[in-house]
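Our platform keeps sequence and structure together, in a single record for each protein. This encoding replaces a full spatial description with a residue-level series of whole-number codes. We quote a single record here, exactly as it is kept in our systems:
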Amino acid sequence: MTDASAGQHFPCGSCGAPAMQYDASVGAMRCPYCNHTQAVAQQAQPQAAPQPQAPEAQQGQAPAQPAPQGPPGPGGAVERRLEEGIAQERSGAGGAGFGTATRSMRCQTCGATVAFSDAAIATKCDFCGSQHVLEQQSQRNVIRPESLVPFAVNDQIAKQKFQEWLGSGFFRPS
């Protein structure tokens, strides 16, 4: 099982409840006890590392045009070029791994792969709830995300849209 105490907690500013939850329908944190909402705190963005000059710029030639990067998105997320990420991973400078030792298990029931703490002895499948999982080789060299984009739709709307999609197509199950 996962350890819920390891994550960040956001106490309610109104009633003092220990953990508010993110509500995608309003884009803010909502207290499950008093229904108080408050904006999600924005984290400071890390400074971008200075880019080394291209070899042709060092030899007096015109430098190549830098690749355009999109503007910061919601929460300050910045789109980065794939080539930069691959170069960072190969050099060891990028954030690789989950930040903690993990193991992967493959569910016998639904076939999903579930990652969990290396210290955990047993777990359940997060997708189907099955307790029957088998240990398999874990991918240790994954690229760690530097930011996350919050959901823009709540679970009720997502389920409704999924049901509409299922009912609208000829080759989809009904």
About this structure: Confidence is low (pLDDT under 50) at residues 1-5, 45-58, 61-68. The chain has three helices and six strands.
